[in-house]
Specification:
The structure is a homodimer. By secondary structure, chain A is mainly alpha-helical. Chain A is 70% helix and 4% strand. Chain A has 10 helices and 3 strands. Chain A has a 3-stranded antiparallel β-sheet with strand order 1-3-2. In chain A, a hairpin with a 3-residue loop joins β2 and β3. Chain A is globular and about 55 Å long. Chain B binds a DNA duplex through α3.
DNA sequence: ACAGACTTTAATGTATACGTTAATGCATGC
DNA sequence: GCATGCATTAACGTATACATTAAAGTCTGT
């Protein structure tokens, strides 16, 4: 009960801390940070910071350049388009494969709960709660797909656009239509209708993606 | 002229060397290797080896465990299935997007050349040449799609199954049918027919994937 | 005053040192 | 003879040291 969050190694701790700082914005997109600064900030030596930086670089969150330290990668609309394209494909695949697994009603409880939570958040209305439930839905969907590589990649892509999503969330009208999509996907999965599950989720993703990109353009958010 | 292969940093050199050793098999799948051994082998200190190991771990080629050094990840049929599913989705996406770019005939020359090379390799017959041309075709297709994240992910996935592919290549009958698929994809891209390009390539991938998995099962290759 | 070369500074890449800790082997007791 | 506990060993995680090298600042000559 005390703590399952035992960041055994300093490298892991550094990676986790840096990720968190990037997501909440205390390391701004486009900003540069020397290894030594970060090491001092995190209260450790350069070594684990360096290792964490390498990890984050492979994960597409920062770049490490010889004298300028690590730069937090900004996310331009073009990046969003790329990431959303990948997410659309892989989540649609996950939906299809989830449908093929013939999950019991019980196994789909989490998915259903997420949808209900979104409904509740819409009437509240509570944007943050909606976003959280939406994320839970997508995460669970991908998990049900059962392809671990898809899960990893989707996680990576979501991390890359996390900041942008948080900003656009505020600008957005309540996505009341979204939950019809979600329910359709759930139903298709429950019925084992793989084709429909894939098609529905793809449509859902494409719609959401376009809406988001439209938002970015309308608000002239060049990068986040 | 002397060398454009200037592996500026030791970490990069180590990563490259380890990758190569994994691919050609001198680091066998499932085998463990201590950091110190590898450092001695590569003639450098543990530091760059450690950093390289971290990179390869994120890329899904090895796992690093506290006292057992880094383990070269074996690829089981289930892994192949996962990777092929991802490749099918993302390459199909690339084909679709390539078709939407309205490339000129010139721009598609590389793709055409790869197909011709495969034809030539089939009549030779020259399995190695065919495999190389096939890889070139797929790589160029993904490049034409224009999504850098897709390119990165596809590269990662290909790396993960590289060894397995080399083994199965030897077991396989000459894929004479494959090139019809390739030509169909090329034509669809040239005509700007995105839907067809996607569908053709998906079908091509699914067929190839099933064939490969069948091979693995028939030969009872549990892991590679 | 400005351009160019030189000096200085400091951040990196890599090696090395060292404490911690898990695995191995041995001794002891049953 | 076998299991259990302890000592030993060595691999790792991390800190530190250091040479290299790119950037910044300075100085000089025109």
């Amino acid at each position: 009960m005390t703590g399952l969050d035992t960041p055994t190694t300093q490298t892991q701790a550094a990676a986790e801390a840096l990720r968190e700082m990037i997501f909440e914005g205390s390391l701004a997109p486009g900003s540069d940070h020397l290894e030594s600064e970060l090491a001092a900030l995190l209260g450790m030596s350069r070594t684990p910071v360096r290792e964490a930086a390498l990890i984050l670089q492979v994960q597409g969150l920062v770049t490490v350049r010889p004298r300028r330290g690590l730069r937090v990668l900004p996310v331009a609309p073009e990046d969003m388009r790329e990431v959303y394209a990948v997410l659309t494909e892989l989540e649609a695949l996950a939906a299809e494969q989830a449908a093929q697994q013939a999950y019991s009603t019980d196994a789909l409880a989490t998915l259903r709960a997420a949808i209900d939570a979104m409904d509740a958040a819409l009437v509240a209305p509570d944007l943050a709660a909606w976003a959280q439930a939406d994320a839970a839905f997508h995460r669970e969907l991908v998990r049900l797909g059962g392809n671990q590589r898809v899960q990893q990649i989707v996680d990576m892509m979501n991390d890359q656009v996390r900041r942008a999503k948080m900003v656009t969330l505020q600008l957005r009208t309540l996505p009341t239509a979204s939950n019809e999509d979600h329910r359709a996907v759930l139903e298709a999965i429950a019925k084992g209708d793989a084709k429909t599950a894939r098609a529905c989720h793809r449509q859902h993703r494409e719609r959401a993606g376009e809406e988001l990109l439209g938002l970015l353009q309308r608000h002239k958010l060049a990068q986040l």
